[in-house]
Amino acid sequence: MRSFLVMLLVFILNADETQNIENLQKRISELELQQKKKFDTTQVELGGRVQLDITKGWPEGSFSAGGIPLKKDAEVGQFGADIRNSRLWIKSKTPSELGMIRTVAEVNFYGESGNEINKNAHGVALRYLYVAIDGITAGQANSLFTTYITPNTLVYPLNHTFARQPLISYTYQQSLLLSYDVSLEQPESYLSDPEGVQVTPQDDKIPDLLVRLRYYPSWGRMALTGMARYIVQDRVELSDGTQLENSDAKWGFGLNASAKINLYALDNLYFSLQYGNGIGRYFSINAYSDGTLDKDGKIDLNTMLGVLVGYQHWWNSTLHSTFAYSETSIENANNNPQDSTNTSQAYLLNLIYSPIKNAQIGVEYGYGNRTLLNEDSGDMRLVRMQIRYDF
Questions:
Q1: What pLDDT, on a 0 to 100 scale, did the predictor assign at position 359?
Q2: How remote is the C-alpha of 274 from its chain's centroid?
Q3: What is d(CA 181, CA 111) in angstroms, rounded to the nearest whole number?
Q4: CB neighbours (10 Å) of residue 379?
Q5: What is the pTM of this model?
Protein backbone atom coordinates (compact mmCIF):
# COMPACT_ATOMS: atom_id res chain seq x y z
CA MET A 1 0.00 0.00 0.00
CA ARG A 2 2.77 2.38 0.90
CA SER A 3 4.58 1.67 -2.37
CA PHE A 4 1.40 2.39 -4.34
CA LEU A 5 0.97 5.80 -2.65
CA VAL A 6 4.57 6.73 -3.38
CA MET A 7 4.16 5.81 -7.05
CA LEU A 8 0.92 7.79 -7.26
CA LEU A 9 2.59 10.88 -5.75
CA VAL A 10 5.50 10.66 -8.19
CA PHE A 11 3.05 10.41 -11.10
CA ILE A 12 1.11 13.46 -9.93
CA LEU A 13 4.27 15.52 -9.45
CA ASN A 14 5.57 14.57 -12.88
CA ALA A 15 2.25 15.45 -14.43
CA ASP A 16 2.27 18.86 -12.74
CA GLU A 17 5.84 19.51 -13.89
CA THR A 18 4.96 18.55 -17.44
CA GLN A 19 1.96 20.87 -17.36
CA ASN A 20 4.10 23.70 -15.96
CA ILE A 21 6.65 23.23 -18.72
CA GLU A 22 3.93 23.24 -21.36
CA ASN A 23 2.43 26.41 -19.88
CA LEU A 24 5.84 28.06 -19.79
CA GLN A 25 6.55 27.17 -23.42
CA LYS A 26 3.14 28.49 -24.42
CA ARG A 27 3.77 31.76 -22.58
CA ILE A 28 7.19 32.13 -24.21
CA SER A 29 5.61 31.59 -27.64
CA GLU A 30 2.98 34.23 -26.88
CA LEU A 31 5.64 36.73 -25.78
CA GLU A 32 7.73 36.04 -28.88
CA LEU A 33 4.66 36.60 -31.05
CA GLN A 34 3.87 39.86 -29.24
CA GLN A 35 7.47 41.04 -29.68
CA LYS A 36 7.39 40.17 -33.38
CA LYS A 37 4.12 42.06 -33.81
CA LYS A 38 5.64 44.99 -31.94
CA PHE A 39 8.56 45.16 -34.36
CA ASP A 40 6.24 44.69 -37.33
CA THR A 41 3.98 47.62 -36.32
CA THR A 42 4.53 50.97 -38.06
CA GLN A 43 2.75 54.09 -36.88
CA VAL A 44 2.02 56.66 -39.59
CA GLU A 45 1.07 60.27 -38.95
CA LEU A 46 -0.16 62.86 -41.46
CA GLY A 47 -0.07 66.61 -40.96
CA GLY A 48 0.90 69.94 -42.40
CA ARG A 49 0.27 73.65 -42.48
CA VAL A 50 -2.10 76.00 -44.25
CA GLN A 51 -0.46 79.41 -44.61
CA LEU A 52 -1.69 82.49 -46.44
CA ASP A 53 0.80 85.36 -46.87
CA ILE A 54 -0.46 88.77 -47.99
CA THR A 55 2.33 91.20 -48.82
CA LYS A 56 2.67 94.81 -49.90
CA GLY A 57 6.21 96.01 -50.67
CA TRP A 58 7.38 99.35 -51.95
CA PRO A 59 9.27 99.70 -54.15
CA GLU A 60 8.84 96.30 -55.78
CA GLY A 61 11.51 93.80 -54.81
CA SER A 62 12.56 90.97 -52.55
CA PHE A 63 13.13 91.67 -48.87
CA SER A 64 16.55 90.03 -48.79
CA ALA A 65 20.18 91.16 -48.68
CA GLY A 66 20.59 90.71 -52.43
CA GLY A 67 17.03 91.58 -53.49
CA ILE A 68 16.34 95.04 -52.07
CA PRO A 69 15.94 97.23 -55.20
CA LEU A 70 18.39 100.03 -55.97
CA LYS A 71 17.10 103.58 -56.25
CA LYS A 72 17.86 103.66 -59.97
CA ASP A 73 15.81 100.50 -60.55
CA ALA A 74 12.94 101.13 -58.13
CA GLU A 75 9.41 100.44 -59.38
CA VAL A 76 6.02 101.10 -57.83
CA GLY A 77 5.27 98.67 -55.03
CA GLN A 78 3.27 95.51 -55.67
CA PHE A 79 0.52 93.75 -53.71
CA GLY A 80 0.69 89.98 -53.61
CA ALA A 81 -0.89 86.98 -51.91
CA ASP A 82 0.13 83.33 -51.99
CA ILE A 83 -0.16 80.02 -50.18
CA ARG A 84 3.09 78.51 -51.44
CA ASN A 85 4.62 78.12 -47.98
CA SER A 86 1.81 75.78 -46.94
CA ARG A 87 3.11 72.27 -46.25
CA LEU A 88 2.10 68.62 -46.14
CA TRP A 89 4.07 65.94 -44.35
CA ILE A 90 3.94 62.25 -43.52
CA LYS A 91 5.94 60.73 -40.66
CA SER A 92 6.40 57.13 -39.56
CA LYS A 93 7.77 55.31 -36.51
CA THR A 94 8.76 51.65 -36.59
CA PRO A 95 10.26 49.82 -33.58
CA SER A 96 13.22 47.57 -34.34
CA GLU A 97 16.00 45.67 -32.60
CA LEU A 98 18.28 48.66 -33.33
CA GLY A 99 15.88 51.23 -31.93
CA MET A 100 13.06 53.37 -33.27
CA ILE A 101 13.23 53.95 -37.03
CA ARG A 102 11.75 57.32 -37.99
CA THR A 103 11.06 58.64 -41.48
CA VAL A 104 9.90 62.08 -42.61
CA ALA A 105 8.65 63.21 -46.03
CA GLU A 106 7.53 66.83 -46.41
CA VAL A 107 6.60 69.04 -49.36
CA ASN A 108 5.56 72.63 -49.94
CA PHE A 109 4.31 74.40 -53.06
CA TYR A 110 7.39 76.29 -54.22
CA GLY A 111 7.74 74.17 -57.33
CA GLU A 112 6.92 75.41 -60.83
CA SER A 113 4.13 77.95 -60.46
CA GLY A 114 0.99 78.57 -62.47
CA ASN A 115 -0.50 81.89 -63.53
CA GLU A 116 -2.26 84.32 -61.17
CA ILE A 117 -5.03 85.12 -63.65
CA ASN A 118 -7.38 82.35 -62.64
CA LYS A 119 -5.76 79.06 -61.56
CA ASN A 120 -2.96 80.02 -59.12
CA ALA A 121 -1.66 76.45 -59.36
CA HIS A 122 1.69 75.73 -57.76
CA GLY A 123 3.90 72.70 -58.23
CA VAL A 124 4.85 70.48 -55.31
CA ALA A 125 8.47 70.85 -54.15
CA LEU A 126 10.39 68.49 -51.90
CA ARG A 127 11.47 69.84 -48.51
CA TYR A 128 12.47 66.82 -46.44
CA LEU A 129 12.90 63.13 -47.09
CA TYR A 130 15.03 61.21 -44.60
CA VAL A 131 15.30 58.21 -42.29
CA ALA A 132 16.71 58.37 -38.75
CA ILE A 133 17.72 55.58 -36.37
CA ASP A 134 19.79 55.59 -33.18
CA GLY A 135 21.14 59.12 -33.78
CA ILE A 136 21.99 58.58 -37.46
CA THR A 137 20.08 60.56 -40.11
CA ALA A 138 20.37 59.96 -43.86
CA GLY A 139 18.51 61.75 -46.64
CA GLN A 140 17.52 65.34 -47.35
CA ALA A 141 17.25 67.55 -44.26
CA ASN A 142 18.29 70.96 -42.96
CA SER A 143 22.04 71.53 -42.96
CA LEU A 144 23.67 71.77 -39.54
CA PHE A 145 24.75 75.26 -40.62
CA THR A 146 21.14 76.43 -40.71
CA THR A 147 20.68 78.92 -37.87
CA TYR A 148 19.28 76.81 -35.05
CA ILE A 149 17.65 79.52 -32.91
CA THR A 150 15.73 82.28 -34.70
CA PRO A 151 13.22 84.94 -33.60
CA ASN A 152 9.54 84.61 -34.49
CA THR A 153 9.26 86.89 -37.53
CA LEU A 154 7.02 86.59 -40.59
CA VAL A 155 9.83 87.66 -42.95
CA TYR A 156 13.35 86.24 -42.81
CA PRO A 157 16.02 88.52 -41.29
CA LEU A 158 18.71 89.53 -43.79
CA ASN A 159 21.31 87.26 -42.19
CA HIS A 160 19.07 84.21 -42.67
CA THR A 161 21.46 81.26 -42.86
CA PHE A 162 20.05 78.15 -44.38
CA ALA A 163 20.48 75.12 -46.64
CA ARG A 164 18.39 71.99 -47.16
CA GLN A 165 20.29 69.19 -48.88
CA PRO A 166 21.32 65.51 -48.93
CA LEU A 167 23.44 64.61 -45.90
CA ILE A 168 24.46 61.97 -43.40
CA SER A 169 24.57 63.13 -39.78
CA TYR A 170 25.07 61.68 -36.32
CA THR A 171 23.76 63.09 -33.03
CA TYR A 172 25.24 62.24 -29.64
CA GLN A 173 23.03 63.22 -26.71
CA GLN A 174 25.47 63.57 -23.81
CA SER A 175 22.80 64.74 -21.37
CA LEU A 176 19.53 66.66 -21.20
CA LEU A 177 21.62 69.84 -21.33
CA LEU A 178 24.18 69.05 -24.04
CA SER A 179 24.28 67.35 -27.43
CA TYR A 180 26.69 67.15 -30.35
CA ASP A 181 26.06 66.72 -34.09
CA VAL A 182 28.39 65.97 -36.98
CA SER A 183 27.48 65.72 -40.67
CA LEU A 184 28.81 65.18 -44.16
CA GLU A 185 26.75 67.25 -46.59
CA GLN A 186 26.34 67.80 -50.32
CA PRO A 187 29.03 70.20 -51.60
CA GLU A 188 28.27 72.93 -54.15
CA SER A 189 30.83 75.60 -55.05
CA TYR A 190 29.12 78.91 -55.79
CA LEU A 191 31.35 81.54 -57.41
CA SER A 192 31.24 84.85 -59.27
CA ASP A 193 33.17 85.27 -62.50
CA PRO A 194 35.00 88.52 -63.41
CA GLU A 195 31.77 89.93 -64.90
CA GLY A 196 29.87 89.37 -61.67
CA VAL A 197 27.84 86.46 -63.05
CA GLN A 198 27.36 83.68 -60.53
CA VAL A 199 28.46 80.22 -61.63
CA THR A 200 28.28 76.73 -60.10
CA PRO A 201 31.26 74.80 -61.54
CA GLN A 202 29.91 71.30 -60.66
CA ASP A 203 33.49 70.25 -59.88
CA ASP A 204 33.15 69.46 -56.18
CA LYS A 205 35.45 66.79 -54.72
CA ILE A 206 34.81 66.59 -50.95
CA PRO A 207 31.59 66.77 -48.88
CA ASP A 208 31.08 69.78 -46.63
CA LEU A 209 32.00 68.85 -43.04
CA LEU A 210 29.98 70.35 -40.17
CA VAL A 211 30.08 70.00 -36.38
CA ARG A 212 27.47 71.49 -34.04
CA LEU A 213 27.10 71.85 -30.28
CA ARG A 214 23.69 72.46 -28.67
CA TYR A 215 23.32 73.57 -25.05
CA TYR A 216 20.11 73.94 -23.02
CA PRO A 217 20.85 75.74 -19.73
CA SER A 218 18.16 77.05 -17.38
CA TRP A 219 18.54 80.59 -18.73
CA GLY A 220 17.71 79.68 -22.36
CA ARG A 221 19.46 77.76 -25.11
CA MET A 222 22.34 78.18 -27.55
CA ALA A 223 24.01 76.52 -30.53
CA LEU A 224 27.42 76.80 -32.18
CA THR A 225 28.25 75.29 -35.59
CA GLY A 226 31.60 75.06 -37.35
CA MET A 227 32.01 74.23 -41.04
CA ALA A 228 34.85 73.34 -43.43
CA ARG A 229 34.38 73.34 -47.23
CA TYR A 230 36.61 72.56 -50.20
CA ILE A 231 35.63 75.07 -52.91
CA VAL A 232 36.71 74.08 -56.42
CA GLN A 233 36.70 75.14 -60.05
CA ASP A 234 38.11 72.82 -62.73
CA ARG A 235 38.37 74.47 -66.17
CA VAL A 236 34.99 76.15 -65.78
CA GLU A 237 33.35 78.15 -68.59
CA LEU A 238 32.84 81.86 -67.79
CA SER A 239 29.76 83.89 -68.70
CA ASP A 240 31.50 85.46 -71.73
CA GLY A 241 32.15 82.01 -73.19
CA THR A 242 35.81 81.82 -72.14
CA GLN A 243 36.89 78.28 -71.28
CA LEU A 244 39.46 78.35 -68.48
CA GLU A 245 42.38 75.99 -68.92
CA ASN A 246 43.37 75.69 -65.28
CA SER A 247 41.93 74.52 -61.97
CA ASP A 248 41.98 76.03 -58.49
CA ALA A 249 40.67 75.09 -55.06
CA LYS A 250 40.54 76.72 -51.63
CA TRP A 251 39.50 75.57 -48.17
CA GLY A 252 36.78 77.75 -46.67
CA PHE A 253 35.60 77.88 -43.07
CA GLY A 254 32.64 79.30 -41.19
CA LEU A 255 31.00 79.70 -37.78
CA ASN A 256 27.33 80.17 -36.93
CA ALA A 257 26.31 80.95 -33.34
CA SER A 258 22.79 81.59 -32.06
CA ALA A 259 21.22 81.96 -28.63
CA LYS A 260 17.94 82.65 -26.85
CA ILE A 261 17.97 84.19 -23.37
CA ASN A 262 14.90 83.96 -21.16
CA LEU A 263 13.91 87.29 -19.63
CA TYR A 264 11.13 88.39 -17.29
CA ALA A 265 7.88 86.39 -17.60
CA LEU A 266 7.69 84.98 -21.18
CA ASP A 267 9.92 87.59 -22.86
CA ASN A 268 13.06 86.49 -24.75
CA LEU A 269 16.21 88.01 -26.21
CA TYR A 270 17.73 86.54 -29.39
CA PHE A 271 21.23 86.74 -30.89
CA SER A 272 22.92 85.22 -33.91
CA LEU A 273 26.34 85.69 -35.51
CA GLN A 274 27.75 84.25 -38.75
CA TYR A 275 31.35 84.66 -39.86
CA GLY A 276 33.73 83.01 -42.29
CA ASN A 277 35.10 82.70 -45.81
CA GLY A 278 33.19 79.53 -46.63
CA ILE A 279 29.60 80.46 -45.78
CA GLY A 280 28.58 82.05 -49.10
CA ARG A 281 25.87 79.74 -50.45
CA TYR A 282 24.56 79.02 -46.93
CA PHE A 283 24.24 82.69 -46.05
CA SER A 284 21.64 85.36 -46.73
CA ILE A 285 19.74 83.53 -49.50
CA ASN A 286 22.59 83.65 -52.05
CA ALA A 287 23.23 87.40 -51.72
CA TYR A 288 26.96 86.66 -51.70
CA SER A 289 28.93 84.04 -53.59
CA ASP A 290 31.57 81.83 -51.96
CA GLY A 291 34.29 83.67 -53.83
CA THR A 292 35.34 85.39 -57.04
CA LEU A 293 37.22 84.02 -60.04
CA ASP A 294 39.79 86.27 -61.70
CA LYS A 295 40.49 86.10 -65.44
CA ASP A 296 43.16 83.46 -64.80
CA GLY A 297 40.75 81.19 -62.91
CA LYS A 298 42.14 81.81 -59.42
CA ILE A 299 39.62 81.73 -56.56
CA ASP A 300 39.52 84.55 -54.03
CA LEU A 301 37.15 83.60 -51.20
CA ASN A 302 34.77 86.15 -49.71
CA THR A 303 34.79 86.69 -45.94
CA MET A 304 31.29 87.50 -44.70
CA LEU A 305 29.71 88.70 -41.48
CA GLY A 306 26.10 88.51 -40.32
CA VAL A 307 24.55 89.66 -37.05
CA LEU A 308 21.07 89.71 -35.54
CA VAL A 309 19.58 91.02 -32.31
CA GLY A 310 15.93 90.37 -31.53
CA TYR A 311 13.53 90.91 -28.63
CA GLN A 312 10.21 89.12 -28.12
CA HIS A 313 7.61 90.60 -25.78
CA TRP A 314 4.42 88.82 -24.68
CA TRP A 315 1.54 91.23 -24.09
CA ASN A 316 -0.50 88.33 -22.71
CA SER A 317 -0.70 84.56 -23.18
CA THR A 318 -2.06 84.84 -26.74
CA LEU A 319 -0.50 88.07 -28.08
CA HIS A 320 3.18 88.81 -28.63
CA SER A 321 5.51 91.08 -30.62
CA THR A 322 9.04 90.66 -31.94
CA PHE A 323 11.52 93.36 -32.91
CA ALA A 324 14.58 92.21 -34.86
CA TYR A 325 17.57 94.03 -36.35
CA SER A 326 19.85 92.21 -38.83
CA GLU A 327 22.90 93.17 -40.85
CA THR A 328 25.20 91.54 -43.41
CA SER A 329 28.50 92.57 -45.01
CA ILE A 330 31.56 91.40 -46.95
CA GLU A 331 34.74 92.20 -45.03
CA ASN A 332 37.35 92.01 -47.80
CA ALA A 333 35.71 92.37 -51.17
CA ASN A 334 38.50 93.99 -53.16
CA ASN A 335 38.28 91.52 -56.05
CA ASN A 336 34.49 91.42 -56.26
CA PRO A 337 32.62 93.12 -59.12
CA GLN A 338 31.66 96.65 -58.14
CA ASP A 339 27.96 96.01 -58.73
CA SER A 340 27.78 93.28 -56.07
CA THR A 341 26.25 93.79 -52.62
CA ASN A 342 28.56 95.12 -49.92
CA THR A 343 26.31 95.67 -46.88
CA SER A 344 22.63 95.39 -45.95
CA GLN A 345 20.52 96.25 -42.89
CA ALA A 346 16.92 95.57 -41.88
CA TYR A 347 14.41 96.16 -39.08
CA LEU A 348 11.34 94.00 -38.48
CA LEU A 349 8.48 94.64 -36.05
CA ASN A 350 5.34 92.52 -35.72
CA LEU A 351 2.23 91.71 -33.73
CA ILE A 352 1.11 88.06 -33.68
CA TYR A 353 -2.12 86.71 -32.17
CA SER A 354 -2.75 83.03 -31.38
CA PRO A 355 -6.47 82.68 -30.60
CA ILE A 356 -6.34 78.86 -30.44
CA LYS A 357 -3.68 76.19 -30.34
CA ASN A 358 -1.72 75.74 -33.62
CA ALA A 359 -3.14 78.92 -35.18
CA GLN A 360 -1.75 82.42 -35.56
CA ILE A 361 -2.66 85.68 -37.27
CA GLY A 362 0.12 88.21 -37.62
CA VAL A 363 1.07 91.50 -39.23
CA GLU A 364 4.65 92.72 -39.67
CA TYR A 365 6.39 95.87 -40.88
CA GLY A 366 9.89 95.74 -42.31
CA TYR A 367 12.42 98.29 -43.52
CA GLY A 368 15.65 97.30 -45.27
CA ASN A 369 18.47 98.88 -47.24
CA ARG A 370 21.55 97.70 -49.08
CA THR A 371 24.67 99.27 -50.57
CA LEU A 372 26.82 97.99 -53.43
CA LEU A 373 30.61 98.12 -53.61
CA ASN A 374 30.30 100.99 -56.11
CA GLU A 375 28.17 102.80 -53.46
CA ASP A 376 24.89 102.51 -55.35
CA SER A 377 22.15 101.95 -52.78
CA GLY A 378 18.46 101.38 -52.31
CA ASP A 379 15.88 100.71 -49.65
CA MET A 380 12.53 98.98 -49.29
CA ARG A 381 9.51 98.92 -46.99
CA LEU A 382 7.21 95.98 -46.57
CA VAL A 383 4.01 95.01 -44.76
CA ARG A 384 3.08 91.36 -44.47
CA MET A 385 -0.03 89.76 -43.02
CA GLN A 386 -0.03 86.05 -42.34
CA ILE A 387 -2.78 83.58 -41.45
CA ARG A 388 -1.47 80.15 -40.47
CA TYR A 389 -2.88 76.93 -39.07
CA ASP A 390 -0.82 73.80 -38.32
CA PHE A 391 -2.66 70.50 -38.33
A1: 97
A2: 15
A3: 31
A4: 19
A5: 0.86
